[in-house]
Amino acid sequence: MRREVLIVRTGEAPSSIRARHGDFPHWFRVATGLRAGAIRVVDVARGENLPAPRDVAGALITGSASMVTERAAWSERTAGWIRAAMDHGLPLLGVCYGHQLMAHALGGRVDYLPGGREMGTVPVRRVAAGDDDSVLAGLPETFLAHTTHEQSVLEAPSACRVWASSVRDPHQLLSYGSNALSMQFHPEFSAEIMRAYIRRKSHDLGREGADVRGLHRTVNPTPHARALLRRFVRQRLCRR
Question: Known catalytic residues?
């Protein structure tokens, strides 16, 4: 019997966005192309227990409105589970909070991004060649990705490799060996979801001096980011 793909849910989308676009597990299911029956969702932020790594095919760790630096009890327990999963060789993919939590769990440093939040569709540039990895080989030198975050990985773990950066964030894409990948950007976001986040934060963005209309105008589809997520799921998770 094929094991399920675990979605480690570390939070939920804002209510105004959930009402129109659904929530994190739905976005990941659509973006990955996985059947609903192939997924198991565990809401760690609400205290649900994670299964033993040997009992699942792999895990996708979601974003969250929480901050890794808060060191919430549920988050620290999840960090411990990440270390155990890495020891087991379980395929892991972290996004935004999941990316930061993986780095924190594995020896990196997470804190507020210097200069304030990064938000919108941004160019991400590869800083390492990935021709020897079929998951990363399809990435062009520069690709678009959706971002919304205040904290970031300021110091990457020594055991990881940095694959891509943006102007604001040098650690947009990290890998830990052949089975674990994390990204600050959101490959599961559609352009409409990105616009919804910008609308929701328009007051804060304006107060911070951002060009809100410009952010709206520059939202575009991010097919390479989504294809990266799909390749990881198909090549690392669905073969187990």
Answer: 96, 186, 188
